[in-house]
Design goal:
By secondary structure, the protein is mostly helical. The chain has helices at about 5-10, 15-20, 30-50, 55-85, 85-95, 105-115, 125-150, 165-180, 190-220, 235-245, 255-275, 280-285, 295-310, 315-345. α3 packs parallel to α6, α6 (about 105-115) packs antiparallel against α7 and α10 (about 235-245) packs antiparallel against α11. The longest helix has about 30 residues, at about 55-85. It is globular. The chain starts with a helix and ends in a 9-residue tail after the last helix.
Length: about 350
């Protein structure tokens, strides 16, 4: 017969579970790599565009190294969570919102790849291996997420801009692949693979853009902690424009591509204006890891503006490129500091009720 003391000892220690930070280590941490890595790409592009590499290349390298260290650290911690707390991992994998952040793993890996391409001592075979791993993971995550949507009863209130993360990942694959092919004349990555991801990303971007706008206009308001994800609307048109410029340069004249990319950038610019108009709302938000959603879309917007300026020399794009540099730097610094403060105060990696 079991005694009361034995029954008590057999129950899980809820207090321990609440205080076990690794158990509650969230997949959303990978969004931090997207933000910091995106800023490193912006700094590198800025130095190249304005011919400042001679004096400030070290700064770009420091940001790149920090991004790689952050990626390795977060990846190791999340792998430890999977090994030690597999049920907690499965719970995130089946969560209707957090499931979308798993694509941040492949996106982060592809961003790290683009940063490593700027380092001449990185072997090409290693870079190609990273690309195919990132592309494979992106396909797996995309299939899993869309399958999840198909077989589960998804209510309108579940739709949120975080759904764009797997889609943006599909648009980043051709960008990373095209940049990698530029490092090797033999072109180890077939065009057909790059256009597959581009077509898939473009299709779901247009489809989800309409779906999410209908939900935001006619459905319930987003929960406060997910309001920063509204910034994700800026990312797809920005990355789409960059894809257009690198994928089809051998098939048509650059002026046509410049016009299409400029039109796509205009969509991103509209959403940037919209986000700025909501500044008062964002300033009232309580800090959460979702704040990292402010960062990567802003860096994508900046990269697009700088690329269009580099091609056409328009002061219009130069202005928004410089504005984007300032915004990206400020946002990444603020969110990084708030994240470190939240970690110190034990406000994250805790049980969410």
């Amino acid at each position: 017969m079991t005694t009361p003391n034995q029954e008590t000892s057999q129950k899980p220690d809820i207090t321990t579970d609440k205080e076990n930070w690794l158990l509650h280590f969230p997949i959303m941490f990978f969004a931090a790599i997207m933000g910091l890595g995106g800023l490193a790409l912006v700094v590198s592009k800025t130095l190249k565009t304005f011919e400042l590499e001679t004096n400030l290349l070290w700064f770009s390298n420091v940001l790149s190294i920090l991004s790689v260290i952050l990626f390795c650290g977060i990846t190791l911690l999340y792998l430890a969570k999977i090994l030690l707390y597999y049920p907690a991992f499965l719970k995130e994998l089946k969560h209707p919102v957090r499931i979308n952040f798993f694509a941040a793993i492949s996106v982060s890996l592809l961003i790290i790849l683009m940063l490593l391409l700027r380092l001449t001592w990185i072997p090409l075979w290693f870079a190609f291996a990273l690309f195919y791993i990132g592309a494979f993971l992106q396909l797996i995550f995309s299939l899993y997420v869309v399958r999840f949507w198909f077989i589960n009863e998804m209510q309108q209130k579940m739709a949120n801009p975080a759904w764009f993360i797997p889609i943006v990942g599909n648009l980043i694959v051709p960008l990373a692949g095209a940049n990698l092919n530029l490092q090797n004349e033999s072109g180890w990555i077939p065009f057909e693979i790059l256009i597959f991801y581009f077509g898939m990303g473009s299709f779901f971007w247009i489809l989800l853009n309409a779906t999410l706008l209908i939900r935001l206009v006619f459905g319930e308001n987003l929960p406060q902690k997910f309001l920063p994800t509204l910034f994700i609307f800026i990312a797809p048109p920005s990355i789409f424009a960059l894809d257009i410029l690198v994928l089809f340069e051998k098939f048509t004249d650059i002026s046509t591509l410049y016009g299409i990319a400029s039109a796509s950038f205009s969509v991103a610019l509209f959403f940037m204006f919209l986000m700025i108009s909501l500044l008062k709302v964002f300033r009232q938000l309580k800090f959460a890891l979702s704040w990292w959603a402010f960062t990567f879309p802003t860096t994508a917007f900046t990269l697009c503006a700088l690329e269009l300026y580099a091609l056409g020399g328009s002061l219009f794009y130069a202005f928004f490129g410089i504005l984007g540099i300032v915004l990206s730097s400020i946002l990444v610094c603020i969110v990084a500091l708030r994240t470190l403060l939240a970690i110190k105060q034990r406000q994250i990696c805790v049980l969410e009720e």
